[in-house]
């Protein structure tokens, strides 16, 4: 059996992704307040470069996925931009179009600027709500109609 004909190894699910923040404490507080994530009670060193900073990992309590928020000593404090190599954005799914409206209201109450809900059919039907974290990282909440 060749590599091309073998089945891909299994993936059990989404675990975490990590971002770098200019102000670790402010970003941790924002993700707690806006997304309801809960920080683990320890910090995590950068593997292989432990002296360069550390991360706080925040857990989504119901679904058990996580976001790592990193502090790097060498971070110059430049806001994130999807126009350079690296993270463009990340998106989370919601169950209904009405959930997007509820999220828009929630973000308003939290003082988080957002795009409002956009419904589109091009290139496929979906609805999306776009907003940004304190470092300008774009987050999206997406509903795909069934």
TrEMBL record:
Gene3D superfamilies: 2,3-Dihydroxybiphenyl 1,2-Dioxygenase, domain 1. One of its GO terms (molecular function) is dioxygenase activity. Keywords: Dioxygenase, Metal-binding, Oxidoreductase. Residues 13-144 form the VOC domain. It comes from the Bacteria. This is Catechol 2,3-dioxygenase. It comes from Geodermatophilus dictyosporus.
